[in-house]
Amino acid sequence: MNHITEIIEKEQLSKFSEILNELAEIADTENTADSFGTNSSFNDTINSSTVLNPWFTRQNITQALQGLSYMLRPEALEKWLKSYDFTQVEAPKRVGLILAGNIPMVGFHDIFSVAIAGHKPVAKLSSQDKLLLPAVFKLFYAATGIEGFDVEWIEERLPAVDAVIATGSNNTSRYFEYYFGKYPNIIRKNRTSVAILTGNESEAELKALGADIFSFFGLGCRNVSKIYVHRDFDIDRFFKGIYDYHDIVNHHKYANNYDYFRALWMMNQEDLLDNGFMILRPATSLASPIATIFYERYDDLGDLKKQLEKQREEIQCIVSLDDVPFGESQHPELWDYADGVDTMEFLL
Questions:
Q1: Could you tell me which InterPro entries the record lists for this protein (predicted)?
Q2: What is the pLDDT of residues 43-101, one digit of tens each?
């Protein structure tokens, strides 16, 4: 049942990226002509998704599709697939997936991994993102015939499964561990991302940091929610770098968050820096609310890195001159597993 060699030999590796890229074009331009014959259907799916979840703008859906298309480019897929021994899978299992819905199609990687490993994904969709993933995997199944892409979509409680991958918060993880502890499992908790500014960053790098902060309105675990700035760093350079994203405040839900925290913190006489579309507040916590960024000054980079190493369980990625490049936090590779846990190794 090792279908991986068959996929490579049939040169199907390019199909995934091609499908996603064409869907991204539909999302971006509302194009009504596509080679898969699903143009109007997928466009309707996008429109319905933006109504179901106002955070899912067409721009964000487009960006998510483009990111997945990049992730599944043929050379990356081949490198990823050749890293594993798929002959270990003797019989397909039913793998239950409890998916998040904070950004468009955030559960894609889990479903794709289960299907590629030769198992049956049994996916419980988030109520905030229940339309896009079924549409995408329906196309994958039609294009490749891989049975795993014929996903079993669940709206209520998970039926009988052999293993579970559940993504949630620190609170929901306790329930997941209680209910699914008897199965082989991966249970994910809250994570966020941070950036380190030394003062040696170029203007282009500071501008790119804006994408790490504002993509998907900052709702993803790979979004930077806190910046560490050197004691001598001029914070005006940071504000200048992210200014291109000032129109984000025109989105009503983002604006509601901005207005709320601005009023609350001003009433509490907090020490704030406000540029009209984002609030910068000094804090030791990692995760900041939407429309805000926490910041903390540091003296020694080595000491800071030791501190962050101790908080590794809370951090998804670090954006800096030495870690994830500026502007690249939303472009993970297939092997950049959530929480650093190798999903494919778990499945084999």
A1: Ald_DH/histidinol_DH
A2: 889 999 999 999 999 999 999 999 999 999 988 988 998 888 888 777 889 999 999 99
> Residue 232 and residue 198: Cα distance in Å, rounded?
9
**The whole model's pTM is what?**
0.90
Answer whether 331's CB lies under 8 Å from 255's CB: no
**Could you tell me the CA-to-CA distances from 29 to 17, 23, 62, 66, 72 in Å, in that order?**
18, 10, 9, 13, 22
The residues, any chain, with a CB within 8 Å of residue 101's CB and separated by 6 or more, are 53, 107, 125, 126, 127, 128, 129, 130
Q: Cα 250 from chain centroid?
A: 23
Q: What confidence tens digit (pLDDT) does each residue in 275-316 have?
A: 999 999 999 999 999 999 999 999 999 999 999 999 999 999
Phi, psi (rounded to 5 degrees) for 317:
-155, 160
Give, for 235, the enclosing helix (H) or strand (E).
Answer: helix 235-241
